[in-house]
Amino acid sequence: MDRLPVAAPDLRGNEERYVVDAIRSSWISSTGPYVDRFEREFAAFSGARAAVSVANGTVALHLALLALAAGPGDEVIVPSLTYVATANAVRYVGAEPVFVDVDPATWCIDPAAVENALTPRTKGIIAVHLYGHPADMDAINRLATKHGLWVVEDAAEAHGAQYRGRRAGSLGTIGTFSFYGNKIVTSGEGGAVTVDDPELERRIRLFRGQGMDPQRRYFFPVIGYNYRLTNVACALLCAQLERWMELAGRRAAVFEAYERALSQVAGIGFQPRADWAEPARWLFCITVDEAGFGMSRDELAGRLDADNIETRPFFHPLHRLPPYEHRIGSNRPLPVTDHLALAGLNLPTSSLMTDEDVARVVTAIKNARR
Ligand SMILES: Cc1ncc(COP(=O)(O)O)c(C=O)c1O
């Protein structure tokens, strides 16, 4: 049987037509009508005043931290259970990531752990909406207000997720997104920064465009970066946003089918869902309890691989990676992160999957126990 990938882009709408249009127009660099349209539409989508298109989700984080003037001597509190880019961006600006545990009720940064990690050097918090589930933003924002901190939402995996009816990307000081090929909305590589504050937007655009003064061509008041996204990539994104309801709807159906079919399987657990959350359906998550299921997460992944089904283990705890194992917070016990990192597995999830594809994965999981 064909290999079932863990993620696959769904480009069956106007994607090809808009890309061809961008090429024929000769607007293939980082200015053009699709850039303007995407930035306008993505701001409306995420509920922020402005959206800035950028080259990927990693530089979106870097630009957020540059705009917030994070730098050497500053501490930024981050969850240990996230993609490595969340912490790397903190190091890019010379600041110190401080690792804290995640909350078992959300798998996102634990507000109580944040409070315990505060020091006079703390400047901000990066709340990651992990695997599409929003972090508890009211609790995080309350702490931030009390202690004069900024909050970056890393919404790379959480397109369209809602917290108490408000969209991810409009809940903190700055929001960041990734449009990598495995994301719900994709341009292959791509990203966005969402922001309400006009001064922060100005700084994000300044650093994105090599630091060039918009009023004075070829004058550079700061050291900037080339982190722009092309009109061709934005053409893809415009076509993807047109299809949001279709893309999100099909993914929700895949999630429901998995949940229904796996809910009776002993030893298999699901991502929790807070009652205030409307999560994005990114990659379907299970946890494998070795005692209950009869084999470890890695053994199950091996069995599925032998059946030509690709899966993905959860992120390795960042506080245990070589660049970070000796940094602040790395010697604290982070039991929820450690447990999930060992037990969690992402199953194939895309809007291209048929009911038969989901059934194939479910059958392979059930058969693996025999
Ligand atoms: C939580 C998180 N943050 C940041 C990124 C970085 O995005 P990109 O791969 O587009 O650089 C990703 C992943 O792709 C992610 O999952």
Helix-strand blueprint:
Elements: H1 15-25, H2 33-46, E1 50-54, H3 57-67, E2 75-79, H4 85-92, E3 96-100, H5 111-117, E4 122-128, H6 137-147, E5 150-154, E6 162-163, E7 166-167, E8 174-178, E9 191-195, H7 198-208, H8 231-242, H9 244-262, E10 268-270, E11 277-278, E12 284-288, H10 290-293, H11 297-306, E13 312-313, H12 335-343, E14 344-347, H13 355-368
Parallel strand pairs: 2-3, 2-4, 4-5, 5-8
Antiparallel strand pairs: 1-9, 6-7, 6-11, 8-9, 10-12, 12-14, 13-14
Bound molecules: pyridoxal-5'-phosphate.
Question: How would you characterize the overall build of this protein?
Answer:
Helices cover 38% and strands 15% of the residues. The chain is α/β, with parallel strands linked by helices and 370 residues long. The protein has two domains: 222 residues, Aspartate Aminotransferase, domain 2 (3-Layer(aba) Sandwich), CATH 3.40.640; 125 residues, Aspartate Aminotransferase, domain 1. The strands form three sheets. The chain has a seven-stranded mixed sheet, sandwiched between helices. Helix 3 runs parallel beside helix 4. The two termini are 21 Å apart. The model has no long low-confidence stretch (mean pLDDT 97). Bound molecules: pyridoxal-5'-phosphate (PLP). The site of pyridoxal-5'-phosphate (PLP) has 14 residues, from helix 3 and helix 4.
